[in-house]
Every structure is written in C-alpha cells, then in structure tokens.
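Morning, I've got a small favour to ask if you have a moment. I owe you a coffee for this, so here goes:

…
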Amino acid sequence: MNRLFSIIQVLQTAKKPVKAKELAEILEVSVRTVYRDIAELQAQKVPVHGEAGIGYVLKDGFTMPPLMLTPDELEAALLGSQWVARCGDKTLEAGAKTLMAKIHALLPGHLRQVIHNSAVCAAPRPDVIADRINMTELRTAIRTGKKVAIVYQTQNQCSERTVWPFMIGYFENTRVLAAWCELRSDFRHFRTDRIEKVEIKPESVPKPVKQLKAEWLAVEKTRIS
C-alpha cells in the first residue's frame, strides 16, 4: 500500500509522463511490479493513464484522501503531538490532543492499531517552567503581523519594550520569543516565563515574518562563525 501512495505522489509532482522504468528506479522495484501497482491503482479508480513508450500521467484534479498515512508517518505525528502536549503551552497542549483525536477518528482500523500499540513515547518533563502570559496572544500577533509591547524582567529589573515578534522557540523546559527590539535596534531573544505582560499593538510590523526570519538567521550565522 505504501508503494501505491508513492506512485501517486511521483505522478502528482511530475511535469511530464513518467515511464515504468523510471518509476521502478525511484521505488527500487522491478518494472513488472510497477505494472502490477499501476493496474491496482486503476482498479481502485485512481485516474492513472499511460501508453507504451510514453509513460504514465495522473489526471488533473485528482486529490489523495486526506489521511493516507504510513505507520512511520503516523508514529511521527504521535510522537510530535506527545512532545507538544508535554512541553508546549496550555493552548498547544489542547491542540495536540484534539489533533490526535481527529486523526484517530478518521483512520481505518488497521492504522488505529498503530496508535494503540505505538513503539514511541515522548518522555515527560515535570520541570517545564510556566509562562506568565497568554501564549495564544503572542502567536496571534505573529500570525497577524502586529507589534507587541512587553514588560520583561531581567534579573532584578523590569524593562518595557516594543518588539516585532516573528518566532517562538519551544525547548524542553522553556520557551523563547525571537523578535526585533525597537529599543535595542537589533534582534533579541526573550524567555517567555520572564515576560510579565503582553499587549498587542494596532501597528503592523513593517516587514513580513518570512523576511524577519531570514534576516535573523543571517545575523545568527554571523555570530556563530
């Protein structure tokens, strides 16, 4: 079954007909096996068309079912959701649990057994430091491209900053906001458990998140080198 999914993915991304020999090389199987797989897909009403010497194409408009997951993909999703549920903030924790519940409800029976008998488990982290702020507000500000005013505590003093947030890093026991700081005119990292207050401002960040991330990454590479 996994190989059938792979054939569909190859044909969906191909810009020209794909010959059976090419598919065989990609999948590391014989050409005869490719012929059998193509016949199986056609029997399942997948619109694969082909001619000898030309290759196979997938009819435009065909979409794969939403949950054609392999056991490895399912366990990756399970492990990731477990980690988020244990190390993320409260809203993401709830989101991770409802995500897996939705996936479980839509899976066929044989794949539900992969979840029930999973070989993976994210270790618990009882020492996760709690945030003082609503992390959902911070993520919303990033998604909507808004400036944020924060009150940040460093050692024994507090400072007020206006920042351009673009990313939150989730570590095992803490979270860090990456943002451009107007006060310092530079990129800064703020531990979210030290942010005492967050206020989303009406002003938009003058640069898109993608650009801020790229500029931040360039600066970080320079600092490391």
